[in-house]
Amino acid sequence: MAKKPKSRKSRPVRPRKFEPVPKEFRTVTPYLAIKGAAQAIEWYKKVFGAKEFESERQATPEGQLIHARIKIGDSIVMMSDIFPGSGVKDPLEPGRSPVTLHIYSKDVDAMWKRAIEAGAKVDMPLDNMFWGERYGQLTDPFGHSWSLSMRIQMSAQEMEQKRQEAMKMFERGYHP
Predict the structure, then answer these.
(1) φ, ψ for residue 115 (rounded to 5)?
(2) How does strand 133-139 pair with strand 65-72?
(3) Cβ(144)–Cβ(158) under 8 Å?
(4) What is the Cα–Cα distance from 158 to 99, expressed in whole angstroms?
(5) What gap in Å lies between CA 51 and CA 88, rounded to an integer?
(6) Which of 169, 75, 72, 73 is nearest to 127 (CA)?
(7) Is 101 within 8 Å of 146 (Cβ atoms)?
(8) 4, 79, 137, 162 — which has fewest CB within 10 A?
(9) Could you tell me which residue, 72 or 21, shows the higher pLDDT?
(10) Domains in the chain, please, with CATH?
(11) At what angle do helices 37-48 and 108-117 cross, to 10 degrees?
(12) What is the pLDDT of residue 176?
């Protein structure tokens, strides 16, 4: 007589642990619509040391990017070209993008210099600010606003002097 196969008790199948947010993403991830997204990626690589997730690049047969993803430091930025009918406005046109992307750097002066040499426009010069950072704002050649900074050591007296100067500018209706 043939042996009966031992019956295995069926265990419930456990679903894989679902993560609603991929590990490498932070709470806020900027998504940029750019006229010339592929060129912008190259600029971000050169200036900010961005790394592209090449497996994420999706392009039309004509070469426009439907989706791309880069990483600057530990932060991800997603982007695509601007497509007719999408409702997305080119930030180079009047009424440009209200978004500013912020980068902390260990050497903000070197990053600032690379950005300017690569065609960025200065909106707010790089300077030591009253909150204890070396900070400046610029616009990249694609119309997006960036703020670059690094924390610095400042004396309480220097910070107070910078704060008073900034408040005087606010009083005159100017944003420092």
Answers:
(1) -65, -45
(2) unpaired
(3) no
(4) 30
(5) 25
(6) 169
(7) yes
(8) 4
(9) 72
(10) 27-83 (3.30.720.120), 98-176 (3.30.720.110)
(11) 140
(12) 56
Q: Any idea which of 11-25, 36-50, 119-133 has the lowest mean pLDDT?
A: 11-25
Contact 169, 163 (CB under 8 A): no
| DSSP secondary structure of the chain | -PPPPPPPPPPPPPPPPP-SS-TT--S---EEEETTHHHHHHHHHHHH--EE-GGG-EE-TTS-EEEEEEEETTEEEEEEE--TTS-PPPTTSSS----EEEEE-SSHHHHHHHHHHTTPEEEEEEEE-TTSEEEEEEE-TTS-EEEEEEE----HHHHHHHHHHHHHHHHTT---
Which tens digit of pLDDT belongs to each residue from 89-112? 787 877 766 577 889 888 999 999
Tokens of 11: 């265990």
> And the tokens for 34?
């750019």
Can you tell me the distance from the alpha carbon of 59 to that of 80, in angstroms, rounded to the nearest whole number? 9
**Could you tell me the two tokens for 84?**
């007719």
Query: Could you count the other beta carbons within 10 Å of the beta carbon of residue 25?
Result: 13
> In the chain, pLDDT over 70 holds for what percent of residues?
79
Measured distance CA(26)–CA(28) in Å, rounded:
6
In sequence order, which residues have a C-beta less than 8 Å from that of residue 95 and are 6 or more positions away? 89
